[in-house]
Amino acid sequence: MKSLPREFNPRHRRPAFNARFVAKTGAFSVAVLSASILAGVPAESPPFTGPAYAEPGVVATSSPPASGSASPSPSASASGSAPAGGPLAAAVPVVPPVPPAPPVVRPVAGLDQRQMDNAAIIVKQGRAQGMPDQALVVAIATAMQESDLYNVASSAVPSSLRLPHEGVSSDHDSVGLFQQRASQGWGTVAELMSPAHSAMLFYDALSRVQGWQRMSVTAAAQAVQRSAFPAAYQKHATRAAQIVGALT
After folding, report:
1. What are the φ and ψ backbone dihedral angles of 153, each rounded to 5 degrees?
2. Can you give the C-alpha Rg of the chain in angstroms?
């Protein structure tokens, strides 16, 4: 076996890299090459701060911070601006506050949540029009009788089926919470299928009934609706008052 050159004598602790020997013999030592490369790296080299070390959502910089850089203030960090200096400059996006969800009133008087939500719209609309509690009770009792407090479309009105609805009825062209009819001049189908708008139309009609405040619930409702069953509204009066009480 051919003896190793002196440069590669195992007794030497750090042999020098001999390019001529590599070129001549084709031999290569990984250990020697690593030692030579490490010997050429300056002691003060900055650490690698590339993307491989960046945490998710953090922008990494490729250069160390400049000396004397001021630390970011808490207010600057909270506002979403990137802090000055530092090997990792955090880019924190400014997120607008989420508005609180409107309060949801739990159902009462045997209603489900959809019915209670529709009742809340009717009460809110009445309040916006300055109607007293008695008018709210009349309106709720009317919607309970007409649609069971569901915003229903009509199979006889195809356009109502293309609008948001919670059921389908088949009573002529009556639609919505109050089963109002476009053919009778109440408004457009889209208006009557809007819970708030249909409630507004009901309150407008009720306010034009002379002396409605002194009427019973069923008499006041009938004066507006002109139903074939004029006495049907009174049976809902007690529950309607309970619903209004929970929503006001």
Report:
1. -90, 180
2. 40
The residue among 38, 27, 3, 1 whose CA lies nearest residue 18 is 27
Q: Identify whether the C-beta of residue 50 lies closer than 8 Å to the C-beta of residue 62.
A: yes
**49 or 95: which leads in pLDDT:** 95
The Cβ of residue 228 has, within 10 Å, a number of other Cβ atoms equal to 6
How does 89-102 read in b/e, with b if 16+ C-beta sit within 10 Å?
Answer: bbeeeeeeeeeeee
180 forms beta bridges with 175
pLDDT at 104: 85
| Separation CA 122–CA 222 (nearest Å) | 18
Say how many C-beta atoms besides its own lie within 10 A of residue 33's C-beta: 12
Q: Cα–Cα distance between 180 and 8 in angstroms, integer?
A: 102
Q: Give the percent of the chain with pLDDT over 90.
A: 56
pLDDT digits (tens, 9 = 90+) for 36-86: 555 555 555 555 444 444 444 444 444 444 444 445 444 444 444 444 555
